[in-house]
Write a structure and sequence with these properties.
Catalase HpII,  Chain A, domain 1, two-stranded antiparallel sheet, globular, iron, metal ion binding, peroxidase, hydrogen peroxide
């Protein structure tokens, strides 16, 4: 009898029997459950995936629940895809510094809104370590490549560490962490060719309409900061502040460089890369070494906790910006970087951040991306650096630590307290073990009355294009031209169907935006050239039969002149 169980997957038709299985089974087992086809997505456990777009949440705004097995399996596997380099944010530079609090926010005492001690006194200083990074590209990639930039700050506060893990851009591609591995996979090199491919990137993005806002930033000069000193930072996600009464405010965090903001067009980046692929690391190190310490003002946007149905966007949606005319930027402190690392590996490479690392007075919102990141980031660090990564000097809080955690690989010391009974590594105990702390204020107790479901947030659809259109109109002509050229380069590697879908999405943002991209793509199809957007190897066009064909080489400056 023919051994169908061991045939390749694509040679076995979906039988949809759903019957109990026998036999050993292999990675290419062709048996399917009822309703499945050969290309039906499943988990590693073989469970058919009926919704790969939305985490399971309490109501469509969140919060995310811990029993999301699909999310946990998907994210935890993603966290372990690289050894030992970070899966994302691999290329980085860092520096030590100090954060100084103003003690106020919007002219009021900051204690009205948060009981976090690092903010509460004018002039209070908190040591910090900052790691800047690129997101998608590898550890030795040029710093001129188009990519979001990480802006992660570790505050060593009197109440323990606070990690604010953000990017240079204020928005993101997606709003549900379930899609994070998919997004990164589309941006990473093709698993077969090991080359980044605009066709793959825009295949994903064209099926993810909320990405258009981020793309309008990323493919403009904002996608290539000139250096780290002249780069904005943003927490991207929505957080909460909590005061002593347990009352909460929704918060967005921002770093504003006092050196001003400077970005690069693609030709400017190409010129730098021709002679230096470490330019941003060099610039940061040399500036601090020379005593030209970079500074950022720390600003926040606030709104009362709640759903805010009066807004046309959801304040928990990280693909959206909070308009500054409605929610002004309020200064709360400043940061100065004044000391370079003594050893790159020990500090910059081994520093480990996590969005779940908050101190009292700071809290999570129900932002779906934030909740997924909160699991993912620290899970990644335990895998990448080790179970005891918090015992490394760069990660250890600058205060007393006493835990009941023991053992694990590379244990350096035991977190026992003075005079603690060493036999007791549990709590509660009446044998001189560790005890709980008193509370600094009332607990914040958000209320939920919603079904546990898998759905998109309610405010999506046309609203996803409005802010991207506003961003397009805010770009100056130089930025618009660079944006269109870079999108053309990247989209030239995509099929005609994907190109048309992206043009349609950008047209929904702004008719001029879509029209200019359509015209540029049409010209590129008649006169193809190598892509320079750094998201694929060579520009390609689509032949009459829909097959990709490689075009003749034309430099970007020549292409730009032809488009005028």
């Amino acid at each position: 009898m023919e051994d169908k169980e061991n045939q390749p997957h694509n040679s076995q038709p979906g039988n949809g029997t759903g019957t109990a299985v026998t036999g050993a089974g292999t990675a290419h087992d062709g048996r399917t459950a009822a309703g499945e086809q050969a290309q039906t997505l499943t988990t590693r456990q073989g469970h058919p995936v009926t919704d790969n777009q939305n985490s399971r949440t309490v109501g469509n705004r969140g919060p995310v629940t811990l029993e999301n097995y699909q999310l946990l399996e998907k994210i935890s596997h993603f966290d372990r895809e690289r050894i030992p380099e970070r899966v994302v944010h691999a290329r980085g530079a860092g520096a030590h510094g100090v954060f100084t609090a103003y003690g106020t926010v919007g002219g009021e005492s900051i204690e009205k809104y948060t009981r976090a001690k690092l903010f509460n006194t004018k002039g209070k200083e908190t040591p910090v370590f900052v790691r800047f990074s690129s997101v998608i590209h590898g550890g030795h990639s040029p710093e001129t490549l188009r990519d979001p930039r990480g802006f992660a700050v570790k505050f060593y506060t009197e109440d323990g560490n606070w990690d604010l893990v953000g990017n240079n851009l204020k928005v993101f591609f997606i709003r549900d962490a379930l899609k994070f591995p998919d997004m990164v996979h589309s941006l990473k090199p093709d698993p077969v060719t090991n080359r980044q491919d605009g066709g793959r990137i825009f295949d994903f993005m064209s099926n993810t309409p909320e990405s258009v806002h981020m793309l309008t930033f990323l493919f403009s000069p904002w996608g290539i900061p000139a250096n780290y000193r002249q780069m904005e930072g943003s927490g991207v996600n929505t957080y909460k502040w909590v005061n002593k009464e347990g009352e909460a405010q929704l918060i967005k965090y921002h770093w504003v460089p006092k050196q001003g903001v400077k970005n690069l067009t693609q030709p400017e980046a190409d010129a730098i890369q021709a002679t230096n692929f470490n330019h941003a690391t060099q610039d940061l190190y040399d500036a601090i070494e020379a005593g030209n310490f970079p500074e950022w003002e720390f600003q926040v946007q606030m709104m009362p906790d709640g759903e805010h149905p009066e807004l046309d966007f959801d304040p928990l949606d990280d693909t959206k910006i909070w308009p500054e005319d409605q929610f002004p930027m309020l200064p709360v402190g400043k940061m100065v970087l004044n000391r370079n690392p003594e050893n790159y590996f020990a500090e910059v490479e081994q520093v480990a951040f996590g969005t779940g690392v908050l101190v009292d007075g700071l809290d999570f919102s129900d932002d779906k991306m934030l909740q997924g990141r909160t699991f993912s980031y620290s899970d990644t660090q335990r895998y990448r650096v080790g179970t005891n990564y918090l015992q490394l000097p760069i990660n250890a809080p600058k205060k007393h630590v006493a835990t009941n955690q023991r053992d694990g690989q590379m244990t350096f010391h035991v977190d026992t307290a003075p005079n603690q009974n060493p036999h007791v590594n549990y709590e509660p105990s009446s044998l001189n073990g560790l005890t709980e702390s008193s509370k600094a204020g009332k607990d914040h107790e958000p209320m939920y009355n919603a079904p546990l479901i898998r759905q998109k947030i309610s405010r999506h659809g046309e609203v996803d294009f409005a802010q991207a259109g506003a961003r397009w109109r805010k770009h100056d002509e130089r930025e618009k031209t660079d944006l269109i050229n870079n999108l053309t380069d990247a989209l030239s590697a995509a099929t005609t169907e994907i190109q048309n879908r992206m043009v349609e999405l950008f047209t929904k943002c702004d008719s001029d935006y879509g029209q200019r991209l359509r015209q540029s793509l049409d010209k590129a199809a008649k006169n193809p050239s190598p892509a320079t957007s750094r998201y694929m190897g060579r520009r390609v066009t689509n032949g009459q039969n829909g097959q990709a064909t490689t075009g003749a080489a034309v430099s970007q400056p020549e292409m730009a002149s032809q488009e005028k």
